[in-house]
Design a protein that fits this description.
two-stranded antiparallel sheet; disordered C terminus; mainly alpha
Length: 717
Amino acid sequence: MRLAPSLTALTLLACAGGPAPAPSRPAPLSAAPAPSSVQPPPALNEPVGVAAARLSGPASGLTAACQDAMARTRTGIEAVKTSLPPRDTVATLTAYDDALAAAGDLASQAAVARQASPDAGMRKAGEECGRQIQALLTGISQDRTLYQVLSGLDLSGQDRATRWWMERELRDFRRAGVDRDEATRERVRALNDDIVAIGQEFDRNIREGTRTVAFAPAELAGLPDDFRKAHPPGADGRISLTTDYPDYKPFMAYSRSGKAREALWRAYNTRAPANAEVLTRLLARRHELATALGYAHWADYITEDKMIRSGKAASDFIERISTAARPRSEVELSILLARKRKDDRGATRFEAWDYSYESNRVKAEQYRFDAKTARPYFEATRVLDGVMGVTGKLLDISYRPVQGATVWHPEVRVYDVIGGPSFEERAGQAVGRVYLDLHPRENKYKHAAQYTVINGQRGHRLPEGALLCNFPRSGGLMEYDDVQTLFHEFGHLVHHVLGGHTRWAANSGTSTERDFVEAPSQMLEEWTRDLGVLQGFARHVKTGKPIPTSLVRKLRAAEEFGKGIDVRQQMFYAATSLHLHDRDPKGMEPTAFVADLQSRYGAFPFVPGSTFYTAFGHLNGYSAVYYTYMWSLVIAKDLFTAFESTGVFDRESGARYRRRILEPGGGKPAAELVTDFLGRPYDFAAYEAWLNRGTLPGPRRESGPARGPENRPAALH
């Protein structure tokens, strides 16, 4: 997963149907007294770096901070509830925002602790803190007195960001069951507690589920020299490889042994077997919660507050994208099977473990691009320098190393983000801090994601964010798709930092609709395709020479191959995510259910015995809405058209993008942010052009399949 969910203020797992209680407003008075003053405890505005230091341990420190934050939240909420009308709108909203921010920040830090701390006690403390804060926020979201106070405020004189925040907030009270009877609300609270605990169990099993497979040296034939040197045989003469990315990805891409690739693929796709049962419990609790509150199923609940609005619309989107990609993917699969038969004349099927390897062979033979020739240009430290340089130039920021910071692991790198001249009064000052935890280790999160450490707020706190990734260490070589992943995650990171100066903490950073939040990250991947950008940082690990123009051109041409397969696979993951949640799961056997979905949507046949879904972490974090990656990609392709016409480092376009997409945080509906930037609503045209683009090898394969308006995704006209 490229973006990890963080528990922010009033991110609620409950929902409700039915009318809301009527707002309670004070009766008019002939001589109105002065507005009531709300006096909650001061907000917890800790110096930069204190939160990260807390994550270094001990566990008792995190636990104490969690309890203090919850106490501040309770006190602040009580102050809002007991204030007397007529209430001062700004004072009331400030107290409410501060109260929730205290708990929200600690919940975010708890998530980092449980996913990244090397200490088992800290991971346990993080889990417990997360559960307690979620329970607290669920109770707050069901508080009728609090709802009446907030719904009775006069917002007519407030700005757009404030009104949009409260529109979302009051909607979430209703979705949490504030208007339901006490028995229902109590059941909602219990179900929410269960959902959080079960979700943590699901994540824990994945985090601790790394597997190791031993291979004979001959089975590494085809792997790059740097990989072989980094993996010498053990005392038994065999080479142990793990299912962590720095081992798994190169092996699947380059090992000539189909049997060896199959062995590592099977190990990777049977991780966390206990999650088959865990998922069954998670699906049951979610369905019960949704139906108790008037929804047909969890998918309808979870999509209601997204851009897409309903499970049916999400399903339609998945079907239409799948249909659009299928013809191209079938042509690509036929090409790959033909390539496989060059080495195995009797081959009748193309398997998932063949894809990376045979795709590389097609690219080498048909596009004259050998991925191994690009690896020496993607040394890990230089790639990191490259993404910092790109985001710095594009957004007028720089990164200043922080020496001696106390963090949760010695490998974590710390940087202050410094504003450039266009930041005016903030020029030369830190606008945020970032923590880069980029390498794999035991019991750490296994994918790549951005996590919140502190949600920033103008005049109060600087935003602090972390990347938890699994890339090679300094000196190691990255695959090109790893380069794109790092750019993607930095897209989230700069969104968190630059959007972390909003008036309200509730609007800070990436607090947009969930199915938009991937768009800025996916757009930043486009910079990895630019010749000038690549030649700026992609330099040979030995000679220091920039990546040749001819190699970049071949890379870009070859990148078009496999696009249909990749989109179709994404839609299989999206369908799995959605359809596990858009029905009553009673009696569902997850493996058989997912196998059926794979036969309908996937590019590759189901492999008996495999259980990819048991390590599909998005089933906890994103639940039914994995479709958001492709939905956001449609928007990202449209956003990038502004830079295609002006240049990737056009100063005016970069400034407009920063100010109209990133800096507002969640202060406007996502569709309005995009319209503000593009000067028009987003549409499907750029995505459609991308999906059709590229020449496929072989006769009469000059372009992708034609598609008409009937294949346009729902709501993207």
